[in-house]
Amino acid sequence: MSRFTDKIAVVTGAAQGIGAATAHRLAEEGAAIAVVDLSADRAQATVDAITARGGKARAYGCDVSDYGAVEATFEQIVADFGTLHILVNNAGITRDNLFFKMPKSDWDTVLAVNLTSAYNCSQVAQRYLTRQRYGKIVSLSSRSALGNRGQANYAAAKAGIQGLTATLAIELGPFNINVNAVAPGYIATPMTAATAERVGSDAEEHQRLAAERTPLRRVGQPEEVASVVAFLASEDASYVSGQTLYINGGAR
What we know:
By secondary structure, the protein is α/β, with parallel strands linked by helices. Helices cover 48% and strands 15% of the residues. The protein has a single domain (8-185, 221-247), classed as NAD(P)-binding Rossmann-like Domain (Rossmann fold, 3-Layer(aba) Sandwich).
């Protein structure tokens, strides 16, 4: 498929996990990718893998929780590629703890990286998208938005993504910009492996237990989220906006 020929996509948090899988999927379908992570060195492995398969990509280092850094990075991306068409707000971290033990610094950091970064990137990106009257924004929420023990900060941030998505769809829709979100359940990524370690388990056992609670009886893979992000970023979803699609194997 070549749904993204001549399209420029910015993917944040694209050094690993769902971000890397999304960058690969969009590149495979013809997009040129701005691979953004905390440092260009972290992003370079994704770029190398894309270019090795004949795709086009460049690495950018950016703290997406810093508005000024986002402005400067997007200016450089547009200088390098000419414009942008697709923004995937994927950057995220966890700092899990029970609420009564959660340090204020962990609340602030998780909200900044998971939610404020989406505000930063979306607001800067819309300057370019509204001018050309075309764009797609897809942000990463989570099943944790519905509540998850030990994740008050992460759950609040991911619920915020859903409210931000619905509102941006209303405000940016008149400029032919679609804004949607995906909310993965348990996906086998370095982040969920770190969660397993935090609770004293190994990744394999943690995944087995999660699979038992999932109707499809398995955990998800990053590529399965990437395929839905690609759909929402494509013209196949041209009349879909303001939605959050859960990708969780049927779990409730």
